Amino acid sequence: MDRLELKCVFTHTLPLIFKDLSGMDVTMMQHPVGQGGLFSGQIQLGNAKARWVYDCGSNQMDRLGQEVMGVANGGHVDLLFLSHLDSDHVNGVDRLLALTTVGEVVLPYLSALEYAGTVGRDIATGTLSVTFLEFLADPAKWLISRGVGTVSYVHSVDPEKPGRDERVTEQEGERSEAFSDQDLRVAWPSSAVKKRAAKKGTVQDIAIGGALSVMTRAGQVNWVLAPFAHKPPKSYTKGFTNAIDKVFGKGLTRSAIAGYARTADGRKKLRECYDHFWEDHNLVSMSLYAGPRATPVISTMEMPFNLWKRPSPTLPREIGWLATGDAHLARFGRYRAWSEFFSSYVERVGVLVLPHHGSWHSYNPLLASSFPNLYACLVAAGPNQYGHPDSRIYKHVRARRLLKWHHVSEHPDSGFGYRANI
User: Fold this and answer.
1) Which range marks the domain in which residue 205 is found?
2) Cβ(374)–Cβ(320) under 8 Å?
3) Assigned domain for 33 exists
4) Does residue 365 fall inside a structural domain?
């Protein structure tokens, strides 16, 4: 089928709390890298632009390399978000950093225990690499040595504790005469940031609920990047913790874990701990909402429909994009904390990337009906031994007739994205 692009004009009302910055172009895309994840987004206002990437990895390395090169050719990346540290989500990072500059990397804060679980999983699946072990020992040092200016660790929610509104009070970014009329700046609210001591670059902790705002000299733009991660409940990791303490002793450090993983005996012991006690290796995964805070005026929108089973004359009413990484949303506590955090953006979400490549064990039946303006559910999955995406999820999503389903695979034409002018 030939590529078909449709344009449609929408008329919504933009609240007056944001500056009149009409003519902002927004481009977002889930790239076809196979069993993994690579998303890129960009907002442009005049000659200024801000770019971000969410995850950069795949088990199909040839496809990943081609797509990473395409992303890098777009120039400097302001923010790279890593949902978690499984190899199929991060094994393209080194390549990306070699081809372009990245201003800031944002990833969930992980304890040494959680790093050990990630290493155990990669050992079990045969995907452990020397590069990953170097990264594991000191992620901030590894990233900064490759030109990253800032490494930000997002702190996460414990879903076993009573739910409360985990959100930092949003503040307008600081205005400065150093801004030029062409500048776009993406920044955390100052109340969310706590800097760490670092010899080179900047390392900082981000409080639960911290969200990035986009600023110009004129004021705040109607766009937000809001990450959210879960903290592993102690009840799920107790057995794994006891096994690690028994085999390796208490106080195991990231550097020590990397050292053990370099030896055959160490890898055997880590895998045994993982196989017998790690009940849920996707306990830590950072989701990301990228979109407007308030319904925008959408002037034009372009989206290819060549890969839909049945082309549609309609386009999304909202352009917010919510990526979930490998979030395990099947568990009620985690889903509740996750949905409460994103409640401020629920009406803005037009595209939802389903968790864990369409795994039934990570899917929550409430997902497809939680977003009133949801237009499409995506799954990012290539050849794999797990049966992703699960046919039960496809049937569940397609039962809502107005909701689109799209499988982003390793096929070069399977990517999904759009461009909008707001």
Assistant:
1) 5-234+277-421
2) no
3) yes
4) yes
C-alpha–C-alpha distance, residues 88 and 59, integer Å: 6
Count the neighbouring beta carbons within 10 Å of the beta carbon of residue 254. Answer: 18
Identify the band that residue 153 occupies on the pLDDT scale cut at 50, 70 and 90: very high
Look at the block and give the residue holding tokens 């890969």.
Answer: 307
Q: What is residue 129's three-state secondary structure?
A: coil
Which amino acid type is present at position 173? G
Q: In 249-316, which residue ranges form alpha helices assigned H by DSSP?
A: 254-261, 264-277
Cβ atoms within 10 Å of 368's Cβ, excluding its own: 20
The answer to whether position 247 is within a domain reads no
Would 308 be classed as within a structural domain? yes
The confidence score (pLDDT) of residue 160 equals 65
| Cα 253–Cα 257–Cα 259 angle in degrees, nearest 5 | 115
Domain count, the chain: 1
Helix axes 254-261, 130-137, angle to 10 degrees: 160
In terms of Cα–Cα distance, which of 242, 240, 245 is closest to 279?
240
Query: Structure tokens of 413?
Result: 């034409």
- Tokens representing residue 281 in the block: 């290796």
Q: How far apart are CA 319 and CA 300, in angstroms?
A: 12
**What CATH code is carried by the domain that includes residue 213?**
3.60.15.10
Between 421 and 132, where is the model more confident?
421
Distance CA 156, CA 339 (A): 14
**Helix, strand, or coil here: 226?**
strand
Interval 327-350: pLDDT, tens: 989 888 889 889 999 999 999 999
Residue (of 381, 401, 116, 110) closest to 232 by Cα position: 110
Please, what sign has the CA dihedral across residues 129, 109, 365, 162?
positive
Strands laid side by side in the 286-291 sheet: 185-187, 212-216, 219-229, 286-291, 320-323, 349-353, 376-380, 404-408
| Each residue's pLDDT tens digit, 20-36 | 445 899 999 999 999 99
CA distances from 155 to 78, 107, 113, 143, 207 (A): 21, 9, 15, 19, 6
pTM of the prediction?
A: 0.90
